[in-house]
Design goal:
The chain has 136 residues and is an all-alpha fold. The protein is built from 3 helices and no strands.
């Protein structure tokens, strides 16, 4: 009768440390790649927030140098018509009496600050993952 190997033992000779290092390398490499992709996505979001804040001013300057017909085509693409709430009777009604208009909020500045904080966190995590891989 053959005895079963103890739990956790392999049936063939292996270097457990080498396997553990390979698995860790793969796990951390995947995490590093995720953070790199996350950073790129955050950068694109920052660009969109900036474009939203500055886009109309840029458009006005560029449209002034274009024919009205061409400007209208580009403007329609960049600034599609908004949603008209009057067309939808189930639209949420916003009450002015519950909104505080005393403190104006610069939403773009807040969003840029948040996104920049995310980018810094992302870069810090990338440095940690890279340091792990270098030390491995």
């Amino acid at each position: 009768m053959n005895a079963s190997p103890p739990p956790g033992d392999y049936l063939w000779p292996v270097d457990k440390e080498q396997i553990a290092r390979a698995v860790r390398r793969r796990q951390v490499t995947e995490s590093l790649e995720f953070e790199r992709e996350r950073e790129q996505t955050l950068k694109e979001q920052i660009e969109l927030v900036i474009a939203e804040a500055e886009g109309k001013r840029v458009d006005e300057a560029v449209f002034a140098r274009m024919s009205p017909e061409d400007a209208a085509i580009v403007n329609a693409e960049l600034n599609p018509p908004g949603y008209d709430a009057e067309d939808d009777e189930n639209e949420f009604f916003e009450r002015d009496d519950v909104i505080n208009f005393e403190d104006p909020i610069d939403e773009q500045a807040e969003e840029l600050a948040r996104l920049n904080g995310e980018v810094e966190d992302c870069r810090r995590r990338q440095r940690a993952f890279q340091a792990y891989l270098d030390a491995l």
